[in-house]
Amino acid sequence: MNIALDFDGTIADAAGAKIRYAKERWNIELTYATSMRPGALPLMGEERYEQMLRDVFGSPMSVEMEPMPGAVESLRRLASDHDLHIVTARFDHEGEFAMQWLEKHGLSVRSLTATNRGAKVDHCVALNASVLFEDSVGELAHFANQEHTVAMALLETPYNQLEQRAEDWHVVPDWTAFEALVGRLAHTT
Ligand SMILES: [Mg+2]
Questions:
Q1: Do 37 and 110 share a domain, yes or no?
Q2: How far is the CA of 154 from the centre of ligand 1 (A)?
Q3: Of the chain's two ends, which shows fewer C-beta atoms within 10 Å, N or C?
Q4: Reported confidence tier of residue 189, pLDDT bands at 50, 70, 90
Q5: Tell me: the pLDDT tens digits for 88-147?
Q6: Is 7 in the same domain as 26?
Q7: How close is the Cα of 81 to the center of ligand 1, in Å?
Q8: From ligand 1's centre to the CA of 138, what distance in Å?
Q9: How far is the CA of 183 from the centre of ligand 1 (A)?
């Protein structure tokens, strides 16, 4: 089975990296719940938010991100039965740091696609992905009303908890639950 995986916030703890960056650089206290654009803008403004994204994603700081709980172990297990494809909204040069992160953690994937902030749906279809695992509600929303057979799995996080979910999404609390979902999907495809 081809499995498409988001990187930031799903595999690597991008929110944690932003929280550290905002504190060290501007003494701004972000939390997991306020680490994404809607929560962060009132606290730091657009310009600083964009600066933070450029620095956190586009520098070696990216390679220092912590893994999301259980992600590395799950990815190793999944890689033995499936083809793993990273589909990230990062820019190309930022994707290279994601690749370094994966190497650092001893993970190998079939491919890494950087959409350069574009929607992922066409890329997932081109990869013949059976499922996409994501932390972004906005990203999964791009799959609505599109021709595709990609199952959509949302990782529950403090910043997406209050956002509206579509009925056909699989909402999972952690990587263990995602692995169980993959097991169910593999039986039905
Ligand atoms: Mg993400």
A1: no
A2: 10
A3: C
A4: low
A5: 999 999 999 999 999 999 999 999 999 999 999 999 999 999 999 999 999 999 999 889
A6: no
A7: 24
A8: 10
A9: 22
Same domain, 22 and 76: no
How far apart are the CA of 7 and the centre of ligand 1, in A? 6
42 CA distance to ligand 1 centroid (A)?
Answer: 21
* Cα-to-centroid distance, 56 and ligand 1 (Å): 13
CATH number at residue 135: 3.40.50.1000
Between the CA of 133 and the centroid of ligand 1 the distance, in Å, is 9
Burial environment of residue 126 by CB neighbours within 10 A (0 to 12, 13 to 18, 19 or more): exposed
- Is residue 41 domain-shared with residue 115, that is, in the same domain? no
**Which tokens go with 113?**
């696609």
Q: Are 69 and 140 in the same domain?
A: yes
Considering its fold, how many domains does the chain have in total? 2
Identify the pLDDT of residue 188.
Answer: 83
Residue 95 phi, psi dihedral angles, 5° rounding: -60, -30
Q: Which domain holds residue 129?
A: 2-13+65-188
**183 has a pLDDT exceeding 80:** yes
Strand order in the sheet with 170-172: 111-114, 83-88, 2-5, 131-134, 151-155, 170-172
